[in-house]
């Protein structure tokens, strides 16, 4: 574990294993804490790098800014991999982390060998899902304005259901609550799924993401999240869809992911 200064921000970074680089990008709200078990498994398949994105838990934000944009997260990932001499990498992103991973692959294709997108939060790809997400975003912003420290809990309850939040052990609820500053920064930012102006992709842009991609969707997730995975798998040139059991917190080291990682780390 280490602290690395990236683009004016101190990021909490963890490395495990050796071999081909594998970068894990967590969702919103979350932290590399939620990837510890998966990272330990992935470390048997390559050099696994995980980190807390700017604004979340153990990573900072610039003192001069209260908002975080999609581009900030993309450039942090790029700079981090360059500092670690870890390009190209297989990039795994879950939820909002999947959106960051997709934008990263589009902006810096030479740094990405392959993509794994675990129900990526690319909600503008489908009009009905975009409308659903827009309504939830407004309710999340209202909840965060009323109770800033409860912003992370509001995301869980509004987007994934009360049962998801209440199923979490108390220590995880406390950890997620500490990521509320990151949630608020993304609500005030641009391009993210929680932003008032989320990123929109044209067909030509998606066609330019030509590296192999595995898109994973869980059978118990909210239907809009599963629909996005299907739509994206149809529009990326070299993507395949992998259905799995369970809910939205898909295992970044599930068997289908490990098979994909081994295939592309070798080739």
Verbal overview:
- With 267 residues, this protein is α/β, with parallel strands linked by helices.
- It has one domain (2-125, 201-266): Rossmann fold, CATH 3.40.50.
- The chain has eleven helices and eight strands.
- It has helices at residues 36-42, 70-83, 96-107, 127-146, 151-160, 162-166, 170-177, 180-187, 203-207, 223-235, 255-266, and strands at 2-6, 9-16, 21-25, 47-51, 89-94, 112-118, 213-218, 239-244.
- Helix 2 (70-83) packs across helix 3, helix 4 (127-146) runs antiparallel to helix 5 and helix 5 (151-160) crosses helix 8.
- The radius of gyration is 17 Å and the shape is globular.
- Residues 21-250 form the AB hydrolase-1 domain.
- InterPro entries: AB_hydrolase_1 (IPR000073), AB_hydrolase_fold (IPR029058), AB_hydrolase_sf (IPR050266).
- It holds the Pfam family Abhydrolase_1.
């Amino acid at each position: 574990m280490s602290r690395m200064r990236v683009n004016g921000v101190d990021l909490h970074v963890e490395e495990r294993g050796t071999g081909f680089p594998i970068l894990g990008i967590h969702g919103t709200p979350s932290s590399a804490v939620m990837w510890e078990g998966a990272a330990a498994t992935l470390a048997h398949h390559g050099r696994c790098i995980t980190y807390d994105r700017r604004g979340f838990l153990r990573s900072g934000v610039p003192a001069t800014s209260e908002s975080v944009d999609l581009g900030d997260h993309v450039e942090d990932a790029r700079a981090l991999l360059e500092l670690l001499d870890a390009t190209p990498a297989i990039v795994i992103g879950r939820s909002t982390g999947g959106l960051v991973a997709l934008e990263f692959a589009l902006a810096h294709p030479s740094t990405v060998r392959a993509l794994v997108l675990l129900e990526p939060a690319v909600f503008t790809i489908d009009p009905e899902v975009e409308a659903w997400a827009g309504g939830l975003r407004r309710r999340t912003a209202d909840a965060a304005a009323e109770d800033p420290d409860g912003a992370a809990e509001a995301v869980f309850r509004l987007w994934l259901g009360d049962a998801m939040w209440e199923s979490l052990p108390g220590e995880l609820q406390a950890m997620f609550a500490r990521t509320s500053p990151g949630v608020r920064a993304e609500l005030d930012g641009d391009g993210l799924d929680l932003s008032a102006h989320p990123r929109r992709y044209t067909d030509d842009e998606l066609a330019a993401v030509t590296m192999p991609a595995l898109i994973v969707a869980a059978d118990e997730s909210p239907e809009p999240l599963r629909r996005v995975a299907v739509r994206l798998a149809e529009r990326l040139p070299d993507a395949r869809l992998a259905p799995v059991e369970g809910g939205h917190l898909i295992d970044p080291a599930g068997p289908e992911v490990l098979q994909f990682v081994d295939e592309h780390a070798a080739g």
